[in-house]
């Protein structure tokens, strides 16, 4: 549920903090994959202008007239935050049923 003062920037920052925690808290293959996902998210943040220095250029500002899109993005970010938070409890197992590393996750 979206609150009046909930912003895409705030939600994105929360997700980024969890992704950074994963990247620094894991080791080996799990750390490498966490860093890849963190870098992908940072790329999205930068390309979308989530933290744009100019208030008028920020994603939150540009979507003021599109409340449904804002609501959808906030829902995706809330879900991503929940999933990544759950992932900090235990690194995922990247080995498939045949005993091979799942390269599709990269």
Give the arrangement of secondary structure elements.
Blueprint (H helix, E strand, L loop, with lengths): L7 H18 L2 H21 L10 H4 L4 H23 L17
Number of strands: 0
Kindly provide the radius of gyration, computed on alpha-carbon positions and rounded to a whole number of angstroms: 16 Å
Low-confidence stretches: none
The major β-sheet equals: none
Distance from N terminus to C terminus (CA atoms, Å) equals 31 Å
What percentage of the residues does DSSP assign to strands (E)?
A: under 5%
Structural class: mainly alpha
On the 0 to 100 scale, the average pLDDT is 85
Number of helical runs? 4
Q: What is the count of structural domains?
A: 1
**SSE series:** HHHH
Q: Residue share in helices?
A: 55-70%
Q: What form results from the Cα inertia axes?
A: elongated
Description:
The protein has 106 residues and is an all-alpha fold. It has one domain. Helix content is 62%, strand content 0%. The mean pLDDT is 85.
List keywords for this structure.
106 residues, mainly alpha, 62% helix, elongated
In short:
With about 110 residues, this protein is mainly α.
């Amino acid at each position: 549920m979206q609150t009046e003062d909930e912003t895409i920037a705030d939600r994105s920052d929360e997700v980024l903090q969890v992704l950074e925690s994963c990247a620094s808290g894991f080791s080996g293959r799990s750390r490498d994959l966490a860093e890849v996902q963190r870098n992908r998210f940072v790329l999205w943040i930068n390309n979308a202008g989530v933290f744009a220095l100019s208030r008028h250029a920020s994603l939150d500002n540009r979507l003021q007239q599109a409340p449904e899109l804002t609501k959808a993005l906030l829902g995706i970010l809330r879900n991503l935050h929940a999933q990544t938070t759950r992932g900090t409890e235990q690194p995922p197992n990247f080995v498939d049923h045949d005993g091979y590393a799942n390269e599709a996750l990269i």
